[in-house]
Each structure stands twice: as C-alpha cells, then as structure tokens.
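note to self — DONT lose this again. spent like an hour looking for the file last time. sequence + predicted structure for the chain T wanted, 283 res
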Amino acid sequence: MKNQYDYLNDAHIDLSIYEEECITEEDVQKMTISKNRRTGIKKKAVILSAAAVLAVATGVAASEGHIEKIIRSFTTGHNLFIQLDPNASHDLPKEVIGKLYDENGQVITAITDGDIKNMYDKDGSRLTQEQVQQIFYDALGTDVISADEKNAATESRSTIEEARSMVEFDIKYPEYVPQGFSFNRAYAYKNDDGSISGYYITLEYTNDKGEEITIMERLLNDETAFEMSTDGELEEMMLNGRRTIINDGRSADFETEDNVSVSIHTKNCVSKDELIRMTESIK
C-alpha cells in the first residue's frame, strides 16, 4: 500500500500549469523523499509553487488506479510516464481531507488545477498558496527547509571531470548545447549522515540571461526507478536507438544501455528541435 512518501515519490510538478513560476527539476528532486529509504537517503520538501499541491493529488490519483483519468502511459524501461486528463479532478490524500474548504464552507475532497488558488480554512478565511502548501506538508509528514539547508543538502563541482568521483556511474553529457549556453556546475545530493549519494547527479547549463538547462541523472535500480504523472502532452520518440519521452517539448527522458536514467529540462528556454538535438548528442 502506498504511504505518504510514495505519494511524493510518484508526484511530478507539471510546469505548464504555472508558466510564471520558476521551478527547476532540482526543486522536484528536493521535494521528493527518496525511495532509497533503506539506505538512509531522504530528500526534504521545499516551498514550491501551487503546482506542487496538484502534483501530490495527481500522483495519488495515478498510483491508486484512477484509470479514467489516464490518457496514455509510456515506459523507458524502469521509469513510467503517465499522461492524465487535464480536465479531470484528482482525489486528495485522505490525510488532507477535512483541512481544506471551498468558498461555501464545504469540505474539499478532490481538486483540479483551477481550484488550488481558491481554498479556505474551516473559519472561512481564504488560504494563501504558502498556507495550502504547509497544510499538505504537515498532513503528509514532510518538512519545509530553508535556502541554507537546501544548499547544505548538495555538494557541487565546477567541472564534469571533478564530478565523476561523486557518483557510481559514468556521467552523460551533451556534445551539443544550444547557442549561448555553457556548463556551469554539477551537484550531487547528500545522505542524512552528510555523505554523498553516488546514485544522483545534476548538470547545470546557463546563459547570460539567467536561463537554465538541467540534466538530472540517476543510477537505475529498483530503488531509484520513478513514476511521473503530468497533464502535459507526452510523446514517444526513438533517439539514438533509445526510447525517449518528450514532455510538452520542454523535457526529455531516456535510459542508457549502462542503466543510467537521464532527464533533460529546458523550461521553455529552447525550442523542441534544440531539445531533441541536445538529447541526440548524448552518447
């Protein structure tokens, strides 16, 4: 049976819902609590946009078998990608029911993306985005961490060569990056005891406009496989002989022959064609 940690593991923030928010996949990684709990690896939650609220509900809907909300699904081998009906409502986790109300004072048991900014407490006071998030985090047993704590949870390197010693797999990097972008840093995630997890690495590419492209990589095993649900448009392509999932033309996910999961996230700062070209350049 799924618990609150599994709900967060299965949740994915669909960035297309809130274009004005600046959310990176690093934030998603920080929000999730690793399935690798047996080895002590945990990721605490950080304050994100209102999309995080829908992400939890969406993840629960998919994981608990609400098939009527699923339009299609794909797998790259270990990882599962689910496209949900953007107009469907999503049942709230039972831990949250009774804590959120609509403008008429009725208990909210299911939400759509349009409901998130119109929630109230039992006394009829409208809740801010941060208050709604805190209710979810409190109910699901997660923590909100400060920026300093967030930075302390990672360790960075200024070159890919230096980063190689932090992980237990060969780092994949693109031979082609869109014009104006260059490698900025690589960072790994720490275990609760302060040691570096060898299972994850993120490569960050930036330009002089402050835009970012992130490439998240993880060593694939039964513990690090993940399920992503979204109401964005999913498309399956074969690139370099690998089954690749494109999400709204802004992210690409695939698995390599040596069991590394690669996720490229562009946040609309480059075109779909550039994303594909970048993906194809990763050997």
